[in-house]
Structures are given as structure tokens and as C-alpha cells.
Amino acid sequence: MKIEDIVGRVFNVDPRGLSELSSHDTIDGWDSMGHLTLILELERRLGVSLSIADALEMVDVATIKATLRRYGIDC
Prior knowledge:
Elements: H1 3-11, H2 32-46, H3 52-57, H4 61-70
């Protein structure tokens, strides 16, 4: 599953409209609770356990992908 699909599902937006620049500044609903929901959904769908430090840094699609690659997830 593409990261854009997960982000789109969590924030109820069309994933085709998302890019690596999509972030908490550009997506409505990506507030602190939305961020927590996103992190939990990424962990659940991708079978990964993210560190708190990594989760806090994942504020845009590009950073999410880079972080997940460090965990060995192809995205």
C-alpha cells in the first residue's frame, strides 16, 4: 500500500492529490490527534513499531517515506 493511500484514508482526502510536499501545513485535520492517528495507522498497516522521535519528525509525506525506508519498508 502506498503511503499516500494511508495518508489519504486517515485524513479523508484523495491520495491522487497528495505529493511528497503534502504535510501537516497543507492537509486539513492533520493536527496533533490526526498525527497520532496517522502514526498508529502506519504502524498497523505496515507492521512496524516507530520510535517516538521518528514519529514526531514525520510531518510530511517525504519524511514519512524516508523514515519508513530506514525501518526497511519499501515505499
